[in-house]
Specification:
By secondary structure, this protein is mainly α. It has one domain (12-383). Helix content is 69%, strand content 0%. The protein is built from 16 helices and no strands.
Length: 394
């Protein structure tokens, strides 16, 4: 086991924080009707529904690219020391994702039943077995769990990707490039030949190619590709990356709708490398505030729909002479309470599971720059205990 300094990439929690908060603000906006407020602050879609912040939709893509980057880098780092241990990889993912996933699922389903919201056994099973992207594809979601589609996509990727990396470790870059182009070809084919079909919707939602673009960035970074570093740390490239994110934030990023998310994945890799490697950052996201929010971003994403609904139920009857104050209460209350609940979840529910990951890690990683000596000591003790127990008789 590697008991040295854990792998930590500066600034990436900042990208997580931006993406997570964008999702919260956007979902609050489209649900303003629950507060008896106008939800059309950002305009109207063609179908008449309120428009959200594009940064929320693209924010999930940023999460995907980040996941592909980090998971792939850690797999390559593990392979450099010993063969990739697939079961241990799955256990680490289970310890990170499953506790909060199922805890929130149970709460959401309980409230769904109590509030007499519609659901079916088949749909519920999709959420139980990490296939939440299926209800999204067929537009038959459980409201409090509708955001779980992205977690389903990630878990499906995690199920397949380590096997692919281990089997193709000596040709992983060309194989990955080939899969990305295959996905792009299928997306274009579905859009041109079967527009509006479940096939096209599936290709749009299952963004494995976005995660693989992040994975390619990790491969270039791991192998210290000088041209890759030079291009992505250049101030001009970084300026383009941040300008693209700015366009997304003001709902003005649109080049070619079929591949907009793939382009944002490339932008994400540019920003990732810039935060890690650039000597002079245009925006330095390695701050205490961003680090804190990024550390609890998983909880922010999972918990926020329930907070939104509860806050709306409690405040919908309030009235003010100046409507601005009610809008302010909606956004501040939902965002603030979500952050508080995510922090409590992280500190008192998720952390014990996260500490257990050390028992199944060849390469240790840190989710925050504040990786204290106490946490390192606990992780080392757990690794030692695991090693001892493996040598002991049953």
């Amino acid at each position: 086991m590697n008991k040295g300094k854990p792998i930590f990439f500066p600034g990436l929690n900042g990208l997580r924080a931006i993406a997570a908060l964008a999702v919260v603000v956007s979902h609050t906006t489209v649900e303003l009707g629950r507060f008896n407020l106008d939800p059309h602050l950002f305009g109207v879609l063609e179908n008449g529904n309120p428009r959200s912040l594009d940064l929320a939709d693209f924010g999930v893509t940023i999460f995907f690219a980040l996941s592909g980057f980090l998971i792939t880098y850690l797999l390559l780092a593990e392979d450099s020391q010993k063969p990739i241990n697939i079961p241990n990889f799955y256990i680490r993912r289970i310890l990170r994702i499953w506790p909060l996933y199922y805890a929130y699922f149970l709460i959401a389903m309980t409230l769904t039943v109590l509030w007499s919201d519609e659901y079916t056994t088949g749909t519920t099973l999709c959420y139980i077995f990490f296939a939440a992207n299926i209800p999204k594809i067929i537009s038959h979601q459980i409201p409090l769990l509708s955001h779980y589609w992205s977690l389903g996509v990630e878990e499906q990727f995690y199920l397949l990707w380590p096997l692919g990396v281990k089997k193709n470790i000596n040709r992983i870059i060309p194989v990955t490039i080939g899969i990305v182009f295959l996905f792009l070809a299928l997306k274009v084919f579905a859009h041109l030949v079967y527009p509006g079909s479940y096939f096209e919707t599936t290709m749009y939602i299952v963004k494995f190619d976005c995660m693989l673009i992040g994975a390619l960035g990790a491969m270039m970074h791991f192998h210290k590709n000088k041209l890759f570093f030079w291009i992505n740390t250049h101030v001009g490239t970084q300026a383009v990356g941040w300008f693209a994110l700015f366009l997304v934030a003001i709902n003005r990023f649109h080049f070619f709708s079929i591949i907009d998310h793939e382009l944002i994945s490339v932008v994400s890799v540019i920003l990732i490398v810039g935060q890690i490697m650039a000597k002079h950052k245009i925006f330095n996201l390695e701050t205490n505030a961003f680090d804190f929010l990024g550390k609890i971003s998983y909880g922010i994403y999972v918990i926020h729909p329930l907070v939104l609904v509860v806050v709306a139920k409690l405040t919908s009857g309030l009235s003010f002479d100046i409507p601005f104050f009610k809008y302010l209460i909606a956004y501040v209350a939902v965002t603030g309470i979500t952050i508080l609940m995510a922090y409590l979840s992280y500190e008192y529910f998720e952390k014990p599971f996260l500490r257990m990951k050390g028992r199944f890690s060849t390469v240790r990683s840190a989710g925050t720059k504040h990786y204290t000596q106490e946490e390192k000591t606990k992780a080392d003790m757990e690794v030692s205990a695991s090693a001892s127990s493996s040598l002991s008789p049953d």
